[in-house]
Amino acid sequence: MFVALIAKDKSGAQAIRAENRPAHIAYLKSTDLVAQAGPFLDNDGDMIGSLIILDVPDMATAQVWVENDPYAKAGLFGSVELIHWNRVIG
After folding, report:
1. 55 φψ region: left (φ > 0), alpha (ψ -120 to 50), beta (else)
2. What is the domain extent for residue 71?
């Protein structure tokens, strides 16, 4: 099943994102659960959140994946949603 992880950064958390980005990218690449991933951007092009599409057997696996993300461990996110997603195109 596909799960959309929609995470929005805490306000003013650019330093947390920058400090933890290498570990986050390594984490994304270390698992075969990530189908797609990329940051949300504000009008100035600054990263303000993340959209990650996970291909997981169940929602519990997605939750564990999120909890182990270096960004989550660093306290970057102000909000996180996990939503079952149905891919129609692509």
Report:
1. beta
2. 2-85
